[in-house]
Every structure is written in C-alpha cells, then in structure tokens.
C-alpha cells in the first residue's frame, strides 16, 4: 500500500513567461521507503517537494497521501494535516537562533498545545537516540553544522510524523557530518518506519536510500532500486 501517490502531476508557473516545472509526473512511494529524488538544477525537485508538503498546489493531476487528497482540504485542515503527517528537514537547518536546542526541538509541540509530560518524554527519548543530551541548553550558533542538523531532525520527529521531507539535508555539511546525518536518517527510517523523501545533489547521500528517482525537465527520467543487480544508464 503506497503512502503517497503522485498521479499525472503537472505544475505550471504563470508569469511573464509560463513555465512548466513538472510535466505529467507519476510515481508512488511505499510506506517505510527511503527515497532520494535527484536531477539537475531547475529539474523541478523543489517544486515537487512544495507540492508534496502542500505549500503549493498542482496545476493538474492528483497527490494522494494515505487516501487523503490534501488538495481538497481547507486551510485549517491543511495546517493540521501538515503538523500531523509531515516533518521537514532543510539544507540550512532553519533553527531559531534565540531559542536553545531544547526549545527548538519542542517548538512544534508547543504550537500544538501538547502537555508538558508528553513533551518531556519525547524530548528525552529523541535526545538520547540522536545523541543531543550534552548540548540541549546551547544555542544554534554554539554547535556544529552536523549537530544542528541532528537537532533539526529531532524537531522534525517530535510530533511523530508519518513522512519526513528533507531538502538537501547534507548540502551544508562536511563529509563526516554528512555521513552521520545520513546514518541517522537511515536508522530512523529502519526503526520507526518513517517514510523519508530526500532531495539531494549528493550521490553519497542517495546511496543510503532504497530507491533513487531521477527527474529531468520536470519529467521522470530513470530510477534505481538498491537491490537492482543490473542498472542501465
Ligand atoms: P530544482 O529544485 O530542481 O532546482 P525547481 O523546482 O526549483 O527546480 O524549479 C523548476 C523550474 O521551475 C525552474 O526552471 C525554475 O526556475 C522554475 N520555477 C520554480 N519556482 C518558480 C516560481 N515560483 N515561479 C516561476 N518559475 C519557477
Ligand atoms: P534549490 O535548487 O536550492 O531548491 P531553487 O533556486 O530551485 O532552490 O528555488 C528556491 C525557491 O525559489 C523555490 O522554492 C522556488 O519556488 C523559487 N523560484 C525558483 N525559480 C523561480 C523563478 N524563476 N521565479 C520565481 N521563483 C522561483
């Protein structure tokens, strides 16, 4: 049973010139899958993530998430859907500089009016799993990039979403921190059955995934499965 179905999705940006950023794209993502999306700059990767994350709507075609069609939800329902189902990880970490690591992590729950007990229990468990316990009281400018991305991953997981959307999560990290972050995402994917979709330019990052989907000019180009013995290019 797929968690996500992208059916014949086209996105056209209207402006001085109209631009077809995605053209009749169709694919499915299985529950528990760790998928990489690769493609040259301008191929439509950000557009695709913006559509899956419901920040933007397709011009035509359908996106179905666990039998829900986010296109049909009103803005209150959409905000609820996003908070319940999705966690975001960005290239620039997007941590709030004036908050401590701990405050950054629990922020999504604060906004959700969760009880202090739930917050503390989830924070403790994630801090242990992601090895954050020794810098929970620091601020983002006092920790390394790799640590910051682990904090961002904890923030994405704190409300226990069914899917993580990661946009170039290793784009600003050195190779050691990148590996650490990728091993962590991979572990989370295996242990928690959180489905992960990661946009990346980094072939090393893609090598951690179950499947790599290549898009070019907004269209499906090729895909590779981890267990494929023969790959064709
Ligand atoms: P990628 O993330 O693969 O670099 P994008 O999804 O950002 O690609 O962009 C795909 C194409 O759509 C590009 O040609 C880009 O310039 C264009 N595009 C993206 N967002 C907009 C927008 N808001 N308005 C007009 N064109 C856009
Ligand atoms: P990245 O490749 O790092 O994801 P992009 O350059 O593709 O960054 O796009 C960053 C943001 O700018 C996208 O979310 C997209 O909506 C917007 N954008 C990209 N191209 C255009 C464009 N031609 N016109 C307006 N907005 C654009």
Explain what the structure shows:
Helix 3 (101-111) packs parallel to helix 5 (145-157) and helix 5 (145-157) runs parallel beside helix 6 (175-192). This protein has helices at residues 45-52, 75-85, 101-111, 116-129, 145-157, 175-192, 203-206, and strands at residues 2-13, 19-30, 34-38, 60-65, 86-89, 163-167, 195-199, 211-216, 219-225. Helix content is 34%, strand content 27%. With 233 residues, it is α/β, with parallel strands linked by helices. A hairpin with a 2-residue loop joins strand 8 and strand 9 (219-225). The strands form 2 sheets. It has a 6-stranded mixed sheet. Strands 2-1-4 form a 3-stranded antiparallel sheet, covered by helices on one side. The two termini are 29 Å apart. Residues 229-233 have low confidence and may be disordered. The protein is built from 7 helices and 9 strands, in the order E-E-E-H-E-H-E-H-H-H-E-H-E-H-E-E. The chain binds adenosine-5'-diphosphate (2 copies). One adenosine-5'-diphosphate is lined by residues 41, 46, 50.
């Amino acid at each position: 049973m797929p968690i996500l179905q992208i059916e014949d999705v086209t996105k056209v940006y209207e402006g001085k010139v109209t631009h077809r950023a995605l053209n009749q794209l169709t694919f499915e993502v299985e529950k528990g899958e760790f998928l990489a999306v690769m493609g040259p700059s301008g191929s439509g990767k950000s557009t695709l993530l913006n559509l899956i994350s419901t920040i933007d709507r397709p011009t035509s075609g359908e996106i179905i998430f666990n039998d829900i069609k986010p296109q049909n939800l009103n803005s209150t329902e959409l905000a609820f859907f996003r908070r319940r189902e999705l966690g975001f990880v960005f290239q620039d970490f997007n941590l709030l500089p004036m908050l401590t690591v701990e405050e950054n992590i629990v922020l999504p729950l604060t906004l959700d009016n969760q009880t202090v007990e739930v917050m503390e229990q989830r924070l403790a468990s994630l801090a242990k799993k992601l090895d954050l316990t020794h810098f929970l009281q620091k601020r983002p400018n006092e920790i390394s990039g790799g640590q910051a991305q682990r904090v961002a991953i904890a923030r994405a997981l704190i409300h226990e979403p069914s899917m993580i959307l990661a946009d170039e999560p290793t784009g600003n990290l050195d190779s050691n921190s990148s590996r650490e972050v990728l091993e962590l995402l991979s572990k989370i994917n295996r242990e928690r059955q959180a489905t992960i979709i990661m946009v990346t330019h980094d072939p090393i990052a893609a090598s951690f995934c179950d499947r790599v989907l290549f898009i070019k000019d907004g269209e499906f180009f090729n895909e590779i499965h981890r267990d494929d013995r023969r790959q064709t290019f």
